[in-house]
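Entry for the shared binder. Reason: the reviewer on the internal report wants the predicted structure included alongside the sequence.
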Amino acid sequence: MYTLFGNATSGNCYKVRLALAYRGQPYRYVDVDSLHGQTRSPAFLAFNPFGKIPALAQSGQPPMVESNAIAWSLLEATPLWPDDARARQSCLAWMFWEQYSHEPKVAVARSWVKLGRDREQPQAFATLRDEASGALDHMERLLSKQPYLIGDAVSVADLCLYAYSHKAGDIGLDLAGWPGLQAWCQRLSAQPWWVTIDDHPTPLALDEALAGLAN
């Protein structure tokens, strides 16, 4: 069985839970407090030298890391990974864009709100939120014309982009201003296998989970 090391509010970790949900894959869950140094502890670094979450592990194997790479690994043999080579390239392009031009805006702004930095640095936050708005504009231009990022069918790219896009309201960006993107979110969340960002198994203690993988 897989063990997912993550955080309940992280969109990056949510991507992996969506991929596991699509596969109907049961898993153990460990909530890791990265803000207070758990990902930098000697025990965690011995398990995952990247020192990051999410990490998805099976006993006796190195952990899988990087959210979009994990999602792809779980879904490449499913209908969520396109058969057509051009569609696969487009899928990867959106996934790379998410990590370079979307997550650093939308997710970082959301973390600023969570930590109160939006109030401490209002001008910097306003700039960051404007950049996040621009990322949503980029998605809207496509999603106003077609139901999903790669055309008429859900792909792994949709899961990866949904994770933080649907939380834009947390940074004061009302998705009603992006009707194509809002409808896309509604179509995805209506999938029969879908889970919400708050839906995960009862967490295990970190030490207990690491010890279980080592044995």
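Summary line for the report: The chain has a mean pLDDT of 96.
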